[in-house]
Design goal:
The chain contains five helices and three strands; from the N terminus they run ααβααββα. It is α+β, with helices and mostly antiparallel strands and 92 residues long. The chain has a single domain, classed as Orthogonal Bundle (Arc Repressor Mutant, subunit A), CATH 1.10.10. Strand 2 and strand 3 form a beta hairpin. Helix 1 runs antiparallel to helix 4. The radius of gyration is 16 Å and the shape is elongated.
Length: 92
């Protein structure tokens, strides 16, 4: 979970995730939306991959990125569980 929250802490990575919510994109397509070097975009994509928030698939010479919805479901479940414990505790 720590790597997930670390990855989500950065606004650039959150913007990449929002973009991928719309459709799968290549690294080049992602880079077009930012005023930074391609190695910097690669760093952000690698952080997202390490946190398992995105999946990558090589297609020809391009690598396409997509959201890993399983991890997002786990995050939502964690939040609901966390919230539920708080409510149970408050009711005691």
């Amino acid at each position: 979970m720590n790597e997930i929250f670390k990855a989500l802490a950065d606004p650039t990575r959150r913007k990449i995730l929002k973009m991928l919510r719309e459709k799968d994109l290549s690294a080049g397509e992602i880079a077009e939306h930012f005023d930074m070097t391609k190695p910097s975009i690669s760093h952000h994509l690698n952080m997202l991959k390490q946190a398992n928030l995105v999946l990558s698939e090589k297609q020809g010479q391009n690598i396409y990125y997509s959201l890993n919805m399983t991890v997002f479901q786990e995050i939502i479940q964690w939040i609901f569980d966390f919230q539920g414990r708080g409510e149970d505790h408050a009711n005691q």
